[in-house]
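Suppose you are handed a protein chain with no further information: no name, no annotation, nothing but its sequence. What can you learn? This example shows the usual starting point.
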Amino acid sequence: MLSKPFLTTHEIAELLKVSDATVRSWIHEGGLRAVKLGREFRVAARDLEAFVNAHVTSPTPKPDNET
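A reasonable first move is to predict its three-dimensional structure. Written in structure tokens, the prediction is:
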């Protein structure tokens, strides 16, 4: 998915087109796992991917050859 193992809240905000405050809110609410390093948070790429997948509004469509 991503080339970096950990992302800052700012990088996530840019990727998802939301504010930094929104990303920090997801972290503080417990929805997005993060590691606190000093005053900053870092999020593992796999945790961001899991967070996004958990918020998908519809299931992945099945290919035409599956029933």
